[in-house]
Queue: 4 jobs
Job 1
Amino acid sequence: MSDQHFRKQIRAGIVMLLPIGLALALVLWVTVRAYRAEARSLEGAQFPMPQDALSDLPEVKDVAFRAGDHEIKGWFFPGTRPGAVLLVHGSGSSRLATKDELKLLGRAGFSVLTYDQPGHGESEGRPSYGPSRREALLRAIDFLAAQPGVERVGALGLSYGGYDLIHVAATTDRVHAIAVAGTPGDLERHGRYEYSGAFGLRFFGAKLAMRAYDIPLEEPTAESVIARLSPRPILFLQGEKDHTVPKELVFRLYDAALPPKTWVDLPESGHCDYAERNPELYARTLESFFSDALAAPRDPH
């Protein structure tokens, strides 16, 4: 075989393989990009809380409790009502994301506890969406229920925090009222929405990140367990301009719940930004819901 003929064959081979190589490179690029985007949304940042975060609510106390091997840090506001509210932040954030809710519920007289999930804010551990989050939530319920004057406990979960809250409330009757804000009922369905396109490659990359952070994709969905919360009241809050977790995904969760349940749309609001975008309606809705739901049961006699 002549050198010229050999070179022609090499060039022909390169021409044939180049599109395949480019396609594989594109597949890898799309997959890695989606993986990194989802990992960023799940990664918890550990940092000290700003000293002036709640300077206008001086009664708030820094508190800590144990959850497994980890010390969990939080804020507690001692209220005057017998009802108390636990706040559960979403993925990749901290208790700072719930400071507006702490203020408005505290000013309404409720005792309020908010805390950093393991591996977030000031809490110990690694960012994980497996059993450690649910354990921390259960221990937070223990802590709040043990406070002087607290007779009944309600809870508000923001975004993914609502997903955890539904699962935990399905296993214990110590949470007497449940409110969820911008919460999807099926994590895989939400992932397919958020990472749609590219022939499923974006969702494939995101799903790899979900597994790396122990997202419980194999467990029953919140949609499948929420009926167990009945007859406890459930409040669903949804921003009309929420494109992170759109209304149709949250409404499937609402549809799966049994009465008593309430749906509230918040105009001009996006994903869990209600205190900023619609403060009066948000405050009025939360105070009304928890006031009614956490009132002492009437004596039938």
Note: The longest helix spans residues 3-42.
Job 2
Amino acid sequence: MLDGYNRLEGDITGLDELLEGASEEERLELEGERETIQHDLDALYRETLFSGRHDERAAIVTIKPGAGGTESSDWAGMLWRMYRRYAERQGMTVELLDAAPNDSAPNGIDYAQMIVRGERAFGLMQVESGVHRLVRVSPFDAQNRRHTSFAAVEVMPEIDDDVNVVIDPKDVRVDVYRSSGPGGQSVNTTDSAVRVVYKPGAPNEIIVTCQDGKSQIKNREKAMTVLKSRLFEREERRRRDEQTAARGDQKAIEWGSQIRSYVLDKQYIKDHRSGDMRHDPDNVLDGDIEGLVWSGLEWKAQQRAAK
């Protein structure tokens, strides 16, 4: 890949030299050729930004509001919509696993989890993992005061049967109940929703719920897939923490250490990792985050190179 990249860079340099002394007719042809090569060069450069062994997998995206009640729940709902719109723009599909609407905020959520499927879904979406901060004049405040809200986004790869994650059936409790999510009245007529509890009552307990459709069997399968992914991610995080401790680094994301701020009353969005700025928050919140995602991937690549 490096040889191909260097060759294309050499072609660009050669064309730039030819353009300096080219006639108008030659210039049009050379500029068209340069544009084609630059497109190939950009595509090859982007290939270098992917390095994870799970980049090609689907992404399980979980969104949770921080403290702040209605305002934070509304913010979580805005992020949920933003990622759904981004996935649509990228030609990806979104499968809702679970969602808990907030009664006080018409479009707000207290929790949402979905699977995004498509080309390099996890490779792209992983840079969104972290704390997102919203600053705005709250529509829920009668005095029109400025509020700051937080929401946490967790992104992990969907782990299939080709990855060996052993789950002892004795460690799992499965509960079934009537769905109360956004699936509609037809979903609510049977006990189709599933709650899987891994090691109930233990300090390392994990709870996964799924109420996506009418089939209890399918909901259980989806919940077990998420549990498997969570256990895999937990083990990966443990290994990373050990490596971090060995290096003496402090890289963990803490609540409040936001990766991106959305300051709506001042019309800007800033990614605190890459430094990338946007001044069109409406477009960003409508899913136009491709540039932010790629700048995040560049930042991650720079961090890897610095180690």
Note: The longest strand covers residues 146-157.
Job 3
Amino acid sequence: METVDQYLSAVLEKLKSDGNVAIIYAGNPNDAGTVQFKSHNPRHWKSYRSVAEDIQNALKLLGFRNLFLLEESMLLPARLKNLKIDFAWLNTAGVQGVDSSCHCAALLESLGIGYVGHTPANVALMDNKHLFKIHLLSQGVRTAPYMVWRPEDDVRSNLNSTLDRFIQELKEDEQFEDSTKFVVKPVCGRASNHIFIADSIEEARELSRRVFTETGNTVLIEPFLSGKEFCISVMGGRSGVRDNERGWEFKQDSYACCFGQFERRLEDPNGIFTSMDIRPIGRDTIKVLSESSESAVLGNINTIARTIFRNLGIYSVIRIDLRMNKSGHLYVLEANPKPDLRAPSDEATSLVSMGLGQLGISYEQMILNQIINTLAHFHLYRKSIAYRLLTLDRSTCSLAVGKN
């Protein structure tokens, strides 16, 4: 097969002119026809349709001709077949059920449709804070001590309970020996929903029951980290531009491109970051880290982000949240496999979009880079999908943009 640059040059033109591309958002399980039977979603549901529309508009500006905005539902496989979808962008975290964030990716893997997004295993791992912590610890990446609370823990004697043992372990750790506050959070969630601070062990127990009642899932308890909070975005390091005379030109500066290294401005330094559902992301909610005065922190955050990105073999965008303890040591809180990708506007923006200025690229260029890195991955690892996309022929098909 040709070189990756030759492949990218050819397949991008094919996709733009002949490919049927779906941008998929989450269907509402309460709407008729979305699911066969209504069940439960431990993850706080959101449609993400408005961001899917932003992505669709960006792809249209980039020259993609056949774009379809589709919702994830029980009807999706039939719609993908009827519309002859060749390629998709996943802007969904699922409809309902356990591990909903990986359902659509798993479906497309089964159907043989290439997509922008994480593999089912990676998105499920990152979306489950408990499993992700196990992975971090196995890779030597520092994350806050934790315990998993389950409702059956309540029937055990307090003396031998998991929570009591956890507290004893903290007292024996010099980094957390004086911890008197705890963070109680769902194992899976979004936008800091159902996250609480407990000022005592008794309150941690009560809040764990409350979070379980709300989510129907296991609960994480961690010591409260009293230092600064940070975030960083990471995406694949390959990029490309098209010159009218020279054609496509690609470069890869690194495997992982780090940007959007921000300190998050907390309304209360003794609290946690307010949900974006309550306090929208804006310039007043973050502080850009300085390369001159904060180089050590910046370098540490970049190293952690690259380690996570490479060890999991990620090639699509993620955002990592970190926080310091009282001694200034950084701990990974989570990796968000589906960070907000809304286009910047006067009304709202996203942490990812706010970081693009550091790279000197536009929102549309970031969207294009996601496709380039995905296709480069296919060229190396998914040769059957890569070849099929290269041989698309829709010269006799009518064009349709934005159909549902």
Note: The CA atoms of residues 256 and 292 lie 22 Å apart.
Job 4
Amino acid sequence: MRFLCKSLRVAMPVFVFVALLTSVSAQDIPDHPNKLKFPELKFEVPSREGMRHTLKNGMTLWWAQDKGAAGLPALFRLEAVIKTSDMLDPAGKTGLGSFTMSMMREGGTATHSREKLNRELDLRAASLGADIDENYASASVTCLHRDHALCLQLYSSMLRQPAFNQADVDRVRAQWLQSIRHRNDDPSGIEGREWSRLLFGDHPSARSVTRASVEAITIDDMKKWHQQYVQPQNIMLYGSGSLSAGEAVKALDTIFAEWKPTGERNAFTVPEATQAAKPGIYLMHRDQAQAHLRIGLVAYQREFEDYYPLIVMNQILGGGAFSSRITQEVRVKEGLSYAQGCRFAMPDLYKGDFMAYVQTKNETLAFAARLVMREIARIRDEAVSETDLETAKQFFIGAFPQQFSTRGNTVQVFALAEYNGRPENYQEEWRNRIAAVTIADVQRVAKKYLKPDQLVIYALGDVAKIRQGSSDHAIKLADLGMPVTELPLPEPENLTVVPKTPEQPKPPQTPVEPPK
């Protein structure tokens, strides 16, 4: 009897489970995952209230209190956004801004040698960073909350009192020169560099450091650059940590108490970008099994009215991974590539480029180029489907909340929006503007910015095989109907073209008689 009762206790949950399973199976279950229905998820952009503050020396601080996850030590993070650009480097000294920012981190400070600074940071699992791009320079500190007072002192010293001593400058310069010597080892690096030089010519955005420019930069140049740009009037701060906003403001007012503005906020512009290369095909030889293809033109400077339909159009054309047309044609249907797609560069300071790309065998490059150009023409000439439009829009709307995943990320979004001059309601309106994009909008911007008669095609690979084409496809490079120009691959150090040395005729060899 005891055994029977025990068996019933074990079996009863099984009976209940089977009954529930039968009940569920009787309901209307979709026959395809696409038909599943989910409740609508609501997301509201976090409030900015209480995040923006002004320090006594005039610097703006965006701060979000974030005590971190339960059971884990709280972190302190702070970043300075500095109003400057690597496009402002003087002629002959390309890399000055980047070299200076590197030395701020790699060269120690007036109070700490590089070795002592690194030791202090390593003991606390803390980090300092300094960098620059075309939009701004940045300097950051990350540490445990308990160490924030000391790390703020180190951070302030890095910002205000970089050492620029000769030994460290020589060490970093040698590292740069070694990297420059080997930069032609990376085909992707060549592709990006030479595409910019081809398309933008002498525009500051297309400049590259060279051996000559790095060797020309002096310590005095770096000190002057630092004095001009790394000053309170040019800096916005944002950060997060356990400190309340009031505590953060007090700590930063204390650490920067003696750091006063030296003038007006830096304001700069860059020259207008125009397309330097004429429409056509440009081939650059490099002995490699796979060719790198780019197709594009100088197209767009960020204007808000066209921004939203443009990113939706780009998503449909080639930005949307397996849902995009270029990936479907080039990879899924034809199996030509694992790397393909397109993107619009949308800088605030100058007109950027549209660029479609494919990496494929040398022999199939012409066929891949034809497929991409066909899709560019199709999105101009034919209205996209409602399904394609909604898939692209829902991708952006669904991904939008990710940028607010932490308090630190949230305050960064708000700070950089202000730095870049976005409207105050930019984030609140973003999804509405995406949702409002229509089929007609997509075709309008495709016609406006994708101009087939201005396209430039650049290919890096084995030129003979690229010209030869593939026996599996009838299309040849000449069939694309564009003039073809072969460009020499510049040598890596100064990006100059080294003339080929003509091959010397080999002397006739005297046949060697076999031993008797």
Note: Residues 287 and 462 are 5 Å apart (CA to CA).
